[in-house]
Design goal:
Shape: rod-shaped
Number of strands: 12
Largest sheet: 6 strands, antiparallel, barrel
Number of helices: 2
Distance between the termini: 152 Å
Strand content: 15-25%
CATH architecture of one domain: Beta Barrel
Oligomer: single chain
Helix content: 25-40%
Order of helices and strands: HHEEEEEEEEEEEE
CATH class of one domain: Mainly Beta
Length: 296
Amino acid sequence: MHPRASNWGWNPAGRRRYALILLWLGHGGWVLMGPHPGQVWTRTAGLLARPAGQLASRWEDWRARRREQGRSYGEIQAENARLRAQVAGLEIADAQAAPRVSEADEAVRLLGLRKQIPLALEGARVIFSTRPEAFGGLILDEGRDHGLVPDQGVIVPEGVVGRIWSVGPTQAKVLPADAPNASLAVMLARSRATGVLQGLGSGRAAIRYLSNQEVVQTGEAVFTSGLDRVFPRGLLVGYVSEVAKGDLELRVTVQLAAPLDRVRLVLLLPPQPPLEVQEPFVAPEQKPAARKRGTP
């Protein structure tokens, strides 16, 4: 007994069924497309091509953005390079102008100090410093041509710098107050005890010949006493930094107030100034004591 052939196989019966189905599908499609099948095919093709068009448009937009970003990044780099060059130029200009600005500020402060002291003061510029060397000093741009003589006092708004050590035709050398061979007559602000200041170097000095009975406090101001006839009484010298009792005398170390390593402009006192001046030169950190009620 032979098996029955399938109606949907690839046999004469099955092929006839497939042909009929294709005919019906074609007829149905023709009916659906109506009298203008070209328009339907166009719309169908456009509908099928729309995703591809959108994808291509997005691709082109992405490439355009990438090109724009590349140009923007290059422009930003160029702008950054230009700004860096401008900043470098401003820093160089500022560095070049800083000494002039600092000297101008120092000159203004010297002018204020000159108005406070009722003496004939002369200004001078420090053109060189030999302080790092042993027994070094400061070289001024004035000498005998401006009437300078040895032992004239040298001051700045912060305090005493030193005295003129030697004078040449057009220059003079200043012996700073912290030099080992420098000496200066001083007095303490509270007790008014007097002594001799001798340099220790590095902006420090020691007061000699103070009795162990004297009461000296750290931070106490030290002024010129005027007994050496180089400085008038009352010029600020520095502040007490260390106090210790010795065998015969009190050991007092003073931190000088004047910035000896940064001095550019100075004022020169006249030779052998008077012992007293009108107003004592009190340090900016100190304030005058309040008057008691009932006192003039």
